[in-house]
Amino acid sequence: MPAALPFRVTVLRGDQLVVDPPEPLEALARGDGQVLWVDGTSPAPEALARLAALFDLHPLAVEDAVKRRQRPKVEDYERYLFVTMHAARLRARGHDVVLDELDVFCGRGFVITVHDGAAPVLEEVRHRLAQAPPEVRIADGYLLYVLLDTAVDTFFPVLDALDAYTERLEDALFTRPGPRTMDRLFQVKRALLHLRRVAAPQRDAMNVLLRHDLPLVAPALRPYFRDVHDHLLRIVEQIDTHRDLLAGALDVSLSLTSHRLNEVMKVLTVITAVFASLAVISGIYGMNFQRAYPPFDWPWGFPAALGVMAASVNPESGVKIVKFRV
Known about the structure:
Layout: E1 7-13, E2 16-19, H1 25-29, E3 35-41, H2 45-55, H3 59-67, E4 73-76, E5 80-90, E6 97-107, E7 110-115, H4 120-131, H5 134-137, H6 142-153, H7 155-175, H8 179-209, H9 222-285, H10 301-312, H11 315-323
Helix pairs in contact: 4-6, 6-9, 7-8, 7-9, 8-9, 9-10, 9-11
């Protein structure tokens, strides 16, 4: 296989961690007593097909890796596992959630990862591999565990940031209410929906890896996978809790808006009540009668009409208008 293919190769051999070894990939794929990690960043379908021919990957799994935008899942192909997972991060200078899909082929002695663009989570995976004991990192399924655990751990800082942002928006509902605050609340709600859309199926997919009859996972690593499953349970529960709090904040915002509208309607009602009697008197007095009462030519006619208007106004209505606060 040509060396120009867009793959980054890492070999785990005992206490050695070799990045981009000089040997061709065909020779590395036939090696024993090692774990070969092949990482592809947006590989072309032709390059991925040649890699699939070398490791005898199923065409359906390769098709899912090419198309991407897959639901989190774990599929058992007997000789290897095909895993689709997601890592979460926040967009720079914003609170939009970005989900990085990672498709993984995990077999005995090899792991293949495929993703679009840069995946920051993989740098943390390489760091954790370098820190792991040599006898552990070459165990069957350990690299898959590190990939899953690191991807799952990315959800916690995102949820913490959304939680702090939601609290600030809740305070703004009482101090600076407005359409902009509502728009931001709905943005957080959409972000939580995106997170749950991948976290819940990722939690369910972990049940496949917890099976005791899975030969591609060393028995000593099963407690580690149970720990990842526990983290996913906490993440889904935390997302649901945040969604409930956000729904409560939206209800409070709608209640405050309705309350302010009611107060405005009260003021308009009071103003209407004040001027309604004046309009009736002035309208009737201004009609084209042949003889008005009091007569138009009477010197005190107009002041008398004004006096009747003033007497008909309820002073308490004016006080209510002055004391009103929107």
